[in-house]
Amino acid sequence: MYRKLLLHLGAIAFFMILPFAVFSQSRTITGTVTGSADRSPIAGASITINGSPGGVVTDAGGRYRITVPATAKQLTFTFLGFSPRTIDLPAGNELNVTLSQADNELNEVVVVSVGYGSLDRREVSSAITHISGKDLLPVSANNPLMSLQGKVAGLSITNTANGDPNSSPSLQLRGVSSRNAGLGPLYVVNGVPGGNIDNINQNDIESIDVLKGGAASAIYGTRGSNGVIIITTKKGTSQSRMFYDGYASFDYVTNRLENLSAQDFLTNRVQNNKGQDYGARTDWMDAVTNSPAFSQKHTLQLSGGSAKTNYFASADYRNAEGIDLRAHKKEYGARISINHTTDDGIFTGTLTVAPRYMNTSNADQGNFNNALTLNPTYPIYDNQGKYNYINTGFFSNNPVENGKLIKSGGDIKEMDINASLKANILKNLSSTVTISEISRSARGMDFSPSTLSTIVHANKTTQTNFAKQNQEENDQKNIEWTGNYSLDVNKHHFKLLGGYSFSAYNYKQFSAQNYDFPFDTYLWNNLGSGLYNGGAAGQGQSAVGSTQNSSRLIAFFGRLNYDFNNRYIVTASLRHEGSSKFGINDKWGDFPAVSAAWRISEEAFMKENLPWISELKLRADYGVTGNQDFDNYRSLLLYGGAGYFPFNGVQYQVYGPASNINPDLSWEKSANFNAGVDFALFNNRLNGSVDYYIRTNKDLLGDYNVPLPPNPQSQTFTNVGTMRNSGVELTLNGTVIKNKDFSYNAAVAFSFNENKFISFSNSLFQGAIFQDVGSLPGPGSPGTIQRIQEGHRIGEFYTLRSAGVDETGALLVYRKDGSVVPANQASNDDKQFVGNGLPRVIASMNHSFQYKHFDLNIFLRGAFGFKIFNTPAFYLGTPSVQADANVLKSAFDSKSKYSKLTNSATTSIASDYFLESGSFLKIDNISLGYTQALKTRYLKSVRIYTAGRNLHTFTKYTGGDPDQIQVNGLRPGLRTNRDGNGTLDYYPSTLQLIFGLQATF
Q1: Measured between alpha carbons, how far is 575 from 221 in angstroms, rounded to an integer?
Q2: d(C-alpha 287, C-alpha 280), whole Å
Q3: Candidates 2.40.170.20, 2.60.40.1080, 3.10.310.30, 1.10.10.10; correct CATH number of 243-462+469-532+551-795+837-866+918-1000?
Q4: What GO terms in the biological process aspect are recorded for it (predicted)?
Q5: Model confidence over 235-260: pLDDT tens digits?
Q6: pTM of the prediction?
């Protein structure tokens, strides 16, 4: 027993002494970490001991000190943006290391988000475009996706009012895909489908992945038909960092429409009895323009922590003016992300909170058009200094008065919350639960005072001042569970994903309005003090309104990724999804997808015979996606107000069926095929991809005529119709020059799209073979100018075909029989297909230069092969425009074909005479920066930069900037309003100058 006790005590003593013995053999390594470009110290670089979880980071001077055990062999040095280095320990105690800046080459490990997970770019087998956050150009835009414009082949981004800080862009991927459902892609923000793109600061974006192929999008089922854009924001790291980015921007009106000056008006209009001289000399366009419009934005980011617990925090402030008298936007936003991993590494928790507040003053886009048409001899103010009452021209109002006195604004509050918990059950098995909420509350306010000249001149005693408030609330709650399992068997690699998704959507709206307030100073803050109350015998139906609707979405999904020796890759997925929007007989659907890839460059015969091919991968994929982006309750029998019924002297509200029931209402289905090639040549100096796609959209949603009875209404909302898009996309990236001090990289993105509308009908519902769209407004009755017809492309202009101008100044057109007559003698039956407003080609080219501390970026962008209807020329560009209205200078320019149309008999008749080529090439963005690393204790580096946007446009279009005309949707090539009809409303294009400062602390 004694002997056993001595043995135990000896063992305990041995294990107590052992750590001291090991520690006595450890040593301390010191040194400095610098960058290869300028040998400046790198602060915050990580140094870890290979095979050990411990590590340190460098201080502000790039210095480090680390204690290593005797068993350690190597140290690894890493820093964001630099290539990592693993170095053997020296014989001594000093080790200085130089890190080289990482290159964006294909052999670099680039992580691509593929939906519910990520893959190495080399493992991807479908059409996905990856954009790094540092590749986003500096653009002072209201929406972060504007910086993506032109960088993704097949993605069309347009904004018809860039100078309005409250405008939003329209996005369309691989052509128009629907008649009555949504056309925009699904946004996934940090893994949450349906993310709020407005609540993202561009500086916070880590990467953007665009899922274009159906096989990639099918994992999102009924929301994947229009493509998926996955946005990943920055997360915390163990490297402590503080970053500031601030800029000021100035927007100047460019490519503006030019109307007659006062002197030109006197010469060309007054002397020809087409106008009167009221004595003033007013530049109405200048009077309603705020140029330059000033904006500023500031962003502060903090990140740091440890390998186990880290954070990322960002705050931003933006104050932006529009180029009109009223538009303005002020916003405050923040994003906080915290990540924590338990000591045993089993659990990882993440929490992200992103609030944002916006205060807006809305632009009146009609004011510029009003200014274009007003007689320039009319004064802004009368003899008493008050705004002049104007009742001549196209629009009887004073646009300066409207811009300064009529108010329209909003308060918008947004909040995104996302929390997840990941359990690493085994080394190759994990499970993640994510809960999130996306909420938006928007309050709109409108007011017009009683002092408006139109009210005072009319001596109105009722419906004088007016105020309105409108409250909208959107809320989306999500719960998602995913499980991931991986298995490697020799050269066989498997990755299995399974999951469940639940989303609940809710919308609420309330509005109230009134007239005749005792004081204009109340604005919209005392609606109860108004006396009008909607009118009509005390019934205030138009004074108040409210609604609420909701929907639910449930899905089960799975995906298997397999590759053999990183050479043969196969991916298959299936989503089983149900939506409360669908009819009772068709609540659920299945969305399968499969893709495959062959990395030929990994074959021995390629490596031996064609060593200049660094990467060559063939891909093909097929997937079925859906579109359920339409209003709630469309499958149900809804009741609504149907007037009033008198009974015993009392008026009773009558309710009746307001819609037809459709138990078979379902999602629009899209069958997608994609074939592509990814390649890298000459040691990755040139890389890119080529894709061919064909997408057939079936069961398009629309309203179809049905008999009365048995149906209570004459139309039913149902699935009918087929459309097809096909095209080719090309992306090229090349390192043209690369040496120690100078580098030049070029990138090209090219897309060609062909569209065809196949059918309006099916076996159950029969529709007409065409639909006339694009109705033009008055004056006159121009009618519609576009037609959607079976067998034709979307965007077909359908008007009279012009045959020139006769000696009387009348427009001549061809009749269907080929004869030529004045346009006023032709009929609608003589209309023909005369052109298309859908661009066939969209292309861009980026040139990136770096010389020592300087960087220069030149970005060109264009669209080609389409027509635009010149709305300003049609209404304001001819000498025959109605009397006392101003016109464009082109109306009296002998070089302009529109100056020939002097006969008022054909003034309001639309024809292809007003169609012009919309093709353009734009110097879209030039940015120049200078970066200086600093060796101070408090500041690591400073970068100053300047940028110019929309610097010049090469085009033959004479109606302003062709990029301001919408080419997405069902009426491309036509200036339209929110209802999709033609409009004279006009918001000038702007040239933007940006001056900015970035600092890293």
Answers
A1: 6
A2: 14
A3: 2.40.170.20
A4: siderophore transmembrane transport
A5: 888 778 899 999 999 999 998 899 99
A6: 0.87
